[in-house]
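Appendix B, record 7
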Amino acid sequence: MKQSEMLIPTQKQDPTGAEAISHKMLIRAGYIRQVSAGTYAYLPLAYRVLEKIEKIIQSEMNKTGANEMLLPDIIPASFWKDSGRYDSYGPELFKLKNRHDTDFILGPTHEETVTELIKGTVNSYKKLPLNIYQIQSKYRDEDRPRYGLLRSREFLMLDAYSFSANDGDLDEIYKKMRTTFENIFNQIGLNYRGIIGDSGSMGGSDSMEFSAPAAVGEDTIVYSDDSDYAANLEMATDMFVNKKSHGEINDLELVDTPDIKNIKQVAKFFDVDSKQIIKSLLYIVDEKPVLVLLRGDQEANIAKIKRFFNAENVELATLSQVENYLGVKPGSVGPFNINAEISIVADEYVKSVVNGVAGSNENDKHYNGVNPERDLQNVHYGDFRTVKEGDISPDGSGVLQFTKGIEIGHIFKLGTRYSKVLGADILDENGRQQPVIMGCYGIGISRLLSAVSEQQADSNGLVWPKAIAPFDVHIIPTNLKKESQSELAQKINDGLEKAGFQVLIDDRKERAGVKFADSDLIGIPIRITVGKKADEGIVEVKIRKTGETVETRVDDLKNTIHILSKEI
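Structure tokens (predicted):
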């Protein structure tokens, strides 16, 4: 392929407003261009990379017996209204109407659509298990699209859906898809972790997230420094260590605490460590009030609260809601004299507090000498805290560490979350109707461009793994005015293409320095420079990833490339 015939608009300067290295380099190297905030055009080089990623995905998915198909981008809103997600999904949902004033959405995901499809086509366990997938654009109206392809309003995604008649078949497909995703990411050349994930708005039970460690990642990966344990921050747990003191138990004492409003002030007033304070937070869980108790040094984990109550929405109560339900200002909220309509849950560490301090539910007053087992009633204890670095890993091996990561894939056991509400039933072996059991499996394909770039780009440009590079080899004749160079470059190009290599030849009338800079930006794995020794049949071969260069005769070029390719 001649470079002069391709749209590769490279630029020397970083684009205005770009923060992530992937965003900067994908634009500078001429791979993408912004069309509007959060939407991008994939230029020829990016499209070639996407095609290679898709072929890897299709090959691995087809090995599992999955069927590729394509669902519409525009979805009847009635599907999402029936499932309950039309309102609960949030403002990221693109909503629109047709000329007849009928509600539609642009699909951010396709659980409802595929469930309705199966509902009308599969009615017996004999047709199951079944796994179908598609590669398609998705749409989410991000409030603040940023980092280029990492958080955009339109993105390319693999989404697969499995259907089975029993949990055993779902388990088998789930395990198979986990292995399939690992094979895909390994072929692409990513550094990644499989971590325990949060199902979030998808619903369902088990889920695993695949995350690529990167400084710009918006997810926090929690992992053990001495075992395989890994989870995202919302799902991470630690080992509960009961350090309850066995000293003398004090009497409960009501103390005036004027103008004391936060944990730091309470700790100073009572001269205690924050671990001795019981923090009380009121949440609204699916429109019902819930008081959550934590040790003063801990933070609430919304995802854990949501899972405990099997809730759709969990939000911290507003000032007016606190005063309405509890009759006090937030600084004095505590687990005493609570209305029966308010559920109380407490982190398990609260139970270990001895002679602690807590709000009294009277303005400007706190209780001292609080001992939960004696003083608190109708409290359910569990894990409601957000873990911290240095906590003991839940498997008891090592301590927890944090790193940033980019979510690149996710697999879910949906169970009957969608089939039950949408009426997708099948007849089981006994002729009885039951909801079909579902799984969901997704990979952010366009996001992979950014994930790979974040991990492998350097200050000079992109560095593509050979499996997904837009071309295998970049040929650069330094001076096309010299006939020996132009002829040798074309001879090498023809020979490599005949041997099965994908080749980009820089036939532009540019200075050598410009060509070399653009070549580094583009990031093709191997560069062949046809220069001063062209008359002798000698060229220079450079590995983009390592910067290593060797001179070789043209007759040995194919063998040299094969050998060097093993180092990429």
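Remarks on this record: The chain has a mean pLDDT of 94. The domain at 253-382 is CATH 3.90.960.10 (YbaK protein).
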